[in-house]
Design a protein that fits this description.
With 143 residues, this protein is mainly β. It is 0% helix and 66% strand. The chain contains no helices and 9 strands. The strands form 2 sheets. Strands 3-9-8-5-6 form a 5-stranded mixed sheet, with no helix packed on it. The chain has a 4-stranded antiparallel sheet with strand order 2-1-4-7, with no helix packed on it. The model has no long low-confidence stretch (mean pLDDT 92).
Length: 143
Amino acid sequence: MNVALAVACDYAIIDQHGKLSVLGMFERIWVERFPVVHPRLHLVLRLKGRRTEIGDHPVQIRLVDDLGHEILRGDGAVQIGEPPAGVLEVEAGAVLAFDIPLEHAGTYTFEIAVDGRLEATVPLMVSQIPSPVAPAPPPSEAN
């Protein structure tokens, strides 16, 4: 199995026929101050493989910061069913929602492992919104 798609977005769904809809893909998060929790980030995955790869495939997702600290971790499995006759490629989608605690500016990375192998990474650059600069007072007129 390999990860054919891995993105962060505002919202995503998979319908009953497996069609994936993704809204608001992004790679940068702007925040006013730290620490903060970024609400409802959706991580979207599309896994593909060969017909011979039906069955359970363990999936591990980690979010690490640029210092190597693990922020979040999730372990699960994707079940790939028997495809119809003549179909040689199998696929599965996943939409995971996270509230992400952010302690500092920098690069955070989702690491996605399937079957114990790192298959994809999704970087997120986190920046602080610059403080607005106060306008200079108007010059006083000398008499």
